[in-house]
Amino acid sequence: MGRGKLRIYLGAAPGVGKTYAMLSEAHRRVERGTDCVVAFVEHHGRPRTEVMLHGLEQVARKELEYRGTTFTEMDVDAVLARSPQVALVDELAHTNIPGSRNAKRWQDVEELLAAGIDVVSTVNIQHLESLGDVVESITGVRQRETVPDEVVRRADQIELVDMSPQALRRRMAHGNIYQPDKVDAALSNYFRPGNLTALRELALLWVADRVDEYLKQYRSDHRVSKIWGSRERIVVGLTGGPEGRTLIRRAARLAEKGAGGEVLAVYIASSDGLTAASPKELAVQRTLVEDLGGTFHHVVGDDIPAALLAFARGVNATQIVLGVSRRKSWQYVFGPGVGATVARDSGPDLDVHLITHDEAGKGRGLPVGRGARLGRSRIIWGWLVGVLGPAVLAAVLNTVHLGLANDMLLFLAVTVAAALLGGLLPALASAAVGSLLLNYFYTPPLHRWTIADPKNIVAIVIFVGVGVSVASVVDLAARRTHQAARLRAESEILSFLAGNVLRGETGLEELLERVRETFGMESAALLERASEHDPWTCAGRAGLGPAVERPDEADVDVPVGDHMALALTGRVLPAEDRRVLAAFAAQAAVVLDRRRLQEEADRARTLAEGNRIRTALLAAVSHDLRTPLAGIKASVSSLRSDDVAWSEEDQAELLEGIEEGADRLDHLVGNLLDMSRLQTGTVTPLIREVDLDEVVPMALVGVPEDSVELEVPETLPMVDVDPGLLERSVANLVENAVKYSPPDRAVLVAASAIADRVEVRIVDRGPGVPDEAKERIFEPFQRYGDAPRGAGVGLGLAVARGFAEAMGGTLTAEDTPGGGLTMVLTLRAAGSRAQGLLHPAEPERQVT
Question: CA dist 665 to 74, 623, 677, Å?
Fold first, then answer.
């Protein structure tokens, strides 16, 4: 049986109609004959939603009792036993009541999918785990119930349920979402127009990114290379000159005009070194483009316009931004320039913007000064000078007779010019043509191919030798400068790569994409196998249609060790490029190893933490739990002994010891269980409005009389808390304070209101805690100072902080003026945020 398919209705905020849309889809499927059941749908008392449930089969819910209250949850076993084709499961991010089969509802959904059942579910954008901080900064509300992004991303289909903020607020005002007594608070808090607009933008952008992932996968699977202008992607061509900053800022402004626009800055390093730039300037421009939300790319290509267009088409760009050429007017005789060539060859699917800047027309400097090799234009000029130059010179000298010596010097000058321009071969041609013309026109006997005077033969030989020597020197220099330029380009690429990897900025897929871009390939993949007889597997891939079966299927494959290879498709690379590619391949293997080592380290860290907890728990059990057990057993044995006749006072004392030991055991076991619940994330607070006068006095039961002073004003606002968790937190804090406070100094428990929160301060006059240890005392199984064994297992403060944070509050430690320690428990005042979002245990039940 295959895995079921997941369809999710995603909403920007509660009340946009996700559940209604899901039920409408269910009715359509039932009409088509699909076996569809309602596994769990909450209508929240909304008549229209409740009506949509009619006519759909509903699986009975499972009843669970928690803290004296009965709750209902989805019965996973019943749904699996029913085994429908499609199950409707509302509120994907919901936290199940303790005692349920799984802690989270999305885990229930995973079980249904694994059983081959298709699931249709709902979730709000604020419940995505990665957006928690963003949503909190917008709304001021921290979502306690979240679902991992990967769970939603793996969905086979995501449908956005959208509604304008004005329409949603009208629905709220008409009572279609909340009960009338909650509408005003919700409209003035969470459902403000600004909040809803920001959440709507988050939802639209998140879905757009998801659609873009689908599009990239489709283009890769179908080998689509033509540009599809589905969103604005702007490529900025950088030369490394100071004008690059202007181009990047202009491209960023262009991207802002379209929703979801992207900026990709690319620097193309030519192997001939002609476009080599200052590394410092490139680093500045890279930082600028990343600060503006774009990405920086480094590509090698001898034909800069072709490489730039290939890169733009490879990333599905829609626009290219280039600067107006820095060349002077006379330099255009060597060609139209990069901007004009890109504009000419871009085609109808790419818009090219030429941006003016302060450096335009100021010149680019002489290529020779940069150590360049001989370019194609220079070689052409060298041949023209070498072949036509002697003929033109001969025509001139036929009208002006300067003598054989001067004529030879002039022909030698032409040969040297041909050597400087075109290298060895044009110089040899010039020497050959020049020697023939000298022999025919200027060496006696004239107009014959013979030489009468032997001295003239020596002169012509010297002429040819000097020309060849100069040409050889020029050609050697050109080759050496070409090698130096190429090595410089390679060092720039490797330095850039090493910097990214050392900073941890490059993952395996990003590195492979960098390889593909750098060498202008269609795809790159890292393949590995356990041994020579095992099949190859793909550890990472980038680009369109990579070779994932065998390395020899690729155009270029570079082995990495005995059982790993980097495979590239697109074209055959020259041998000189393989040196840099080998470095990339070795670095890819290092990145893969580092990723696996990090995963192993994370697992080892988890195991170590578990071992630490188990060790501490064993230590607690070995002493702190056995001590009261030993006392209880001794007292019981004494009472049951027939050898001693105990008086009533003695019996009462022994019974009191048994009771104290049992209370101590109950307290210790309770803390252990609470810590276990916090560690596993199963603490589910049931938030409601509570008066501190109702809870704090109950937390003081069990502490010695006259050891605590209570100052809780009656005028304090009510707080949004779970009464049971608050009582346990305060009780643990007071017990800890009494333990360390001197017998003659009572512990003060005071409460006060500050802005939208209420603070409960537990003040003792004990020895206090230094600043460096104030956070450590909240860790599990920690006793501060020389606290003796038997004083507890060191869980009281850890449990208190865990419960406080579960309720949306905080717990910190401060110094008491005059000596001692003050525990500050901060709670949210009632009405300080949207009522429906105050219930982490069941937010969707009140606001969806």
Answer: 36, 12, 18
